[in-house]
Amino acid sequence: MSDAIADAKRALRAELRERRQLLSEPAREAAEAGIHAQLDALVDEHGARSISCFLSTMAEPGTRSFVTDAVGRGVRVLLPVTRVDGLLDWAVATPEGDIAEGMYGLPEPVGELLGPIAVNDVDLLVIPAAAVDRNGMRLGWGRGFFDKTLGSMERCPPVYAVVYDSEVLDDLPSDVHDQPVTGIVTPTRTITLAPTRR
Q1: Could you tell me if residue 89 is left (phi over 0), alpha (psi between -120 and 50 degrees) or otherwise beta?
Q2: What is the pLDDT along the chain (198 residues), one digit of tens a residue?
Q3: What angle, 0 to 180 degrees and rounded to 10, lies between the N-to-C axes of helices 64-72 and 25-46?
Q4: pTM
Q5: Residues 6+ apart with CB under 8 A from 36
Q6: DSSP class of residue 105?
Q7: EC (predicted)?
Q8: For residues 9 and 7, what is the distance between their CA atoms, to the nearest angstrom?
Q9: Helices in the chain by DSSP H: which ranges?
Q10: Domains of the chain in sequence order
């Protein structure tokens, strides 16, 4: 990655992180309710019986109530667990939903770990992002877990990144290893983009 691209990404991440920190509690709660409704509709639209999703941090658009309800409805939900080698293991979400602090302070499920290839069997991937542009380019938080995962999948199902409405941007700095997404989920809408995946 060129220094100019890396610097642009770093600056943008810092700005987005700061904006997220300033959100009020009522704004966070409203965003989580909106994300929940959008993701429910997305799962129904795709007829998804098995999905991957992430457990949101305090600063991210909330996904936890959606995960709990999806599990209650019989949807198989795989949750990511970070590994030292930069790949992701997966654990099946359970009704108890035990959560511990994983690497980088991220919330992660407690339970039996499935290897990185477990995600190859899902119908839909729901992943975190700092921002997404209108071409489907996703800006992550710089650790590359999801870019590695998407880049290694033989048959990638639809991939939707979850962001706040203000984080859907016209254009983002990107490099060769960055993986595009199929669509964007915000608290107020779901945007399905023109296919750009391989």
Answers
A1: beta
A2: 578 888 889 999 999 999 999 999 999 999 999 999 999 999 999 999 999 999 999 999 999 999 999 999 999 999 999 998 888 999 999 988 788 888 777 888 888 899 999 999 999 999 999 999 999 999 998 888 998 898 888 888 999 999 999 999 999 988 888 889 999 999 999 999 966 444
A3: 40
A4: 0.92
A5: 62, 65, 66, 69
A6: G
A7: 6.3.3.2
A8: 5
A9: 3-21, 25-46, 64-72, 145-152
A10: 3-192 (3.40.50.10420)
Beta strand residue intervals within the chain, DSSP E: 50-52, 76-82, 88-92, 99-101, 107-109, 124-128, 131-133, 138-139, 159-162, 168-169, 183-185, 190-192
Whether the Cβ atoms of residue 161 and residue 192 lie closer than 8 Å to each other? no
Q: Would you mind telling me the total number of residues written for the chain in this entry?
A: 198
